[in-house]
Amino acid sequence: xxxxxxxxxxxxxxxxxxxxxxxxxxxxxxxxxxxxxxxxxxxxxxxxxxxxxxxxxxxxxxxxxxxxxxxxxxxxxxxxxxxxxxxxxxxxxxxxxxxxxxxxxxxxxxxxxxxxxxxxxxxxxxxxxxxxxxxxxxxxxxxxxxxxxxxxxxxxxxxxxxxxxxxxxxxxxxxxxxxxxxxxxxx
Length: 187
Prior knowledge:
Number of helices: 6
CATH topology of the largest domain: Ubiquitin-like (UB roll)
Order of helices and strands: HEEHEEEHHHH
Oligomer: single chain
């Protein structure tokens, strides 16, 4: 009489609710509020829920860089980043670059033939933008001259560019052209 009987559907819904949260991501300048399973990677949310397919699923282990996007201005492997942990974050994908046209780095990749199959290109471009910003902010890399003061803009020569982009793999071997494209943009 006063007792409530739970059905299996009620129990399943309650269990599902414990494993989902509402998250707002600011993707390419647009706030997107989604209810997400806590286990979903940012890459899958971008590709499957938001139809932003620029970032690619290469290795799904954070080793190839094909999924690189910018989160709050820093480059991340989106296949490893849980989307639920990014509530309120700014996410920029290759689709969000440029102001109504091509970003200068996208144009440089085109001009320098810095891609062949193109699979890694969106991740390469996002990683290059992040690397340029890191160097401008004075974050040293493994090959930065130890005498260079930290916190001051770092010069980006070919060796620095190669080191900073070493986490992004290109099966086709377009590396020299990728470095050329980045050099064109930072000049």
